Amino acid sequence: MTSQVSSPAGMSDETGEAVVGEQRAPHGDRPGTTEKEIRRLDRVIIRFAGDSGDGMQLTGDRFTSETASFGNDLSTLPNFPAEIRAPAGTLPGVSSFQLHFADHDILTPGDAPNVLVAMNPAALKANIADVPRGADIIVNTDEFTKRPMAKVGYAESPLEDGSLEAYNVHPVPLTTLTIEALKEFGLSRKEAERSKNMFALGLLSWMYNRPTEGTETFLRSKFARKPVIAEANVAAFRAGWNFGETTEDFAVSYEVAPASKAFPTGTYRNISGNLALSYGLIAAGRQADLPVYLGSYPITPASDILHELSKHKNFGVRTFQAEDEIAGIGAALGAAFGGSLGVTTTSGPGVALKSETIGLAVSLELPLLIIDIQRGGPSTGLPTKTEQADLLQAMYGRNGEAPVPIVAPRTPADCFDAALDAARIALTYRTPVFLLSDGYLANGSEPWRIPEADSLPDLRTRFATGPNHELADGTEVFWPYKRDPETLARPWAVPGTPGLEHRIGGIEKQDGSGNISYDPANHEFMVRTRQAKVDGIEVPDLEVDDPAGATTLVLGWGSTYGPITAAVRRLRAAGETIAQAHLRHLNPFPKNLGEVLRRYEKVVVPEMNLGQLALLIRAKYLVDARSFNQVNGMPFKAEQLATVLKEAIDA
């Protein structure tokens, strides 16, 4: 979905307060509808929850797409089991999708839902602890029977025992209403029941005045080969909308105006982190005038990049689904040797398998992008949950001295720019580069301003075309390890170019000639040269947001940007002074990082690991950085961070 925004940029603090504005014209102004009140809100957080087979991710995606086309700012948090089909009706099998949308600039999917849609008892029990008092809970009463409740430990129905008195509970027989609405289509009960998520989507679309045309078009396209199923889903969607219009249980609907002041003028679309990263890789290939070669093995949560890039052969992208992780990176490195922009995608366990070939890429000094979409570990760990615990693996997870630059995006949309930045470093300095995203960024989404093509960086690089060194006897030869004096990059010679034959392999190279060398002095020289090349990579200075001369700095990296910034906004709105800085480049660090750290009495580093960046900061800069850590598979909450940072300020 794309939308045009023509208002000037603006900013609003994400304070966590939902504001109810003026009442507007009732629905009854439309012919054939009952008169109902519309209230204006500045933001809403909705969570859809049900079995992993109930279509909660699709429901959330459709609501998100319509919200994006309406022009709201938004942020999403999909959360689902690792199993393809987890046991139905159980707590481990619950799948949810949270969406935060607003009429102003926001940064996170929200701490707690204003509305919970619970498709069964398991969904209610798994999510009720996150729901604040006074929130709306829409429950599918058809599922609150003895057996489903017993599966999750409900001795009696929570809809009747008074345990939900603090909430606005809306009991809706979603299954029954859906089956009734689809009688004319001649579907079996099981087939009709599958559309109950569309009934719920229609109801929520009515409650929040979302557009409907896009969803109906999507359903007809998705089920184009099954027109009866397509029309049944459209009918269920419309039935949900009409139920909201006519039932007395929903006396009020809500409107969240477009976030027209939150964005600069431009064309926007809703985008997930993995999709933005895929587009960034395609753009990098075009800007470098090189074919993109992806050698990959499917792994959650990185597989979507392989799926997306496989659709873009027309942009010179070739994808290879290898038999394993090692073959994937081997093919990508071979493609880099052959003159392509080599890319491999994976998650933490795959990085471990790829480590030897990454070391080979360091030795060969070839451009290669290693995309690590981090997830919970160790081993298989939590495939569908987020974590940022691969930093030390990316930094040091190879034998010998094998430095690799590291880039980390901060938001889903920023994955596009991070991919271009990683490609710039790889091509300019002839080195493998890590890009560290994570499951939260990969699956989450937000509005993205589509850039103008002429605003993208020029990444073109020159291949070696002839001899570059003269021997003592005057013979002109090609030396594959003769370096650019500014970047220390070696020449990139495409195989088959006459006169540029040279050795490749993992054994140490002689400086200049590239011949095999066991000379101790040469080895030390090459080790120090490779390190100096990485240390000398040009990265921007670290920018610090400190409008009031604070004594406490909160330093983050990667996907913690949204929660940290939201927490900082809350503190500043409450009159506190605190500075914020966020790292994109983790190897090498920005040259001014040490000076920035020494300005502040206290430095706090929130991370979704046990303190990996804090360890690096303390070791390199001898600064007493304080860690705040979380490894529960979920992103930080803004309120949680605000509390921790307030304690740090007051300490």
Query: How many beta-strand segments?
Result: 26
Total of DSSP H or I helical runs spanning 4+ residues: 20
**Proportion of residues in extended strands:** 15-25%
Helix amount: 25-40%
- Give the biggest sheet: 7 strands, mixed
Q: Which structural category do the helix and sheet elements fall into?
A: alpha/beta
Q: Specify Rg, calculated over alpha carbons.
A: 27 Å
On the 0 to 100 scale, the average pLDDT is: 94
Query: What distance lies between the first and last C-alpha atoms, to the nearest angstrom?
Result: 47 Å
Q: Largest sheet, order of strands side by side?
A: 13-12-14-15-17-16-24
* Low-confidence parts: 1-13, 16-32
Shape type:
globular
How would the blueprint of this fold be written?
Layout: E1 2-5, E2 20-24, E3 37-41, E4 43-51, H1 56-70, E5 73-79, E6 94-102, E7 115-118, H2 121-127, E8 136-140, H3 146-151, E9 168-172, H4 174-181, H5 189-193, H6 196-207, H7 213-222, H8 227-246, E10 252-256, E11 266-272, H9 273-288, E12 292-296, H10 303-309, E13 317-321, H11 325-337, E14 341-346, H12 348-364, E15 368-374, H13 391-396, E16 406-407, H14 414-429, E17 432-438, H15 439-443, E18 445-449, E19 469-470, E20 476-477, H16 520-535, E21 544-545, E22 552-557, H17 561-573, E23 579-583, E24 585-587, H18 593-598, E25 602-607, H19 612-621, E26 626-629, H20 638-650
Parallel strand pairs: 3-10, 4-7, 7-8, 8-9, 12-13, 12-14, 14-15, 15-17, 16-17, 22-23, 22-25, 25-26
Antiparallel strand pairs: 1-11, 2-3, 4-6, 5-6, 11-18, 16-24, 19-20, 21-23
Helix pairs in contact: 1-6, 4-6, 6-8, 7-8, 9-10, 9-14, 11-12, 17-20
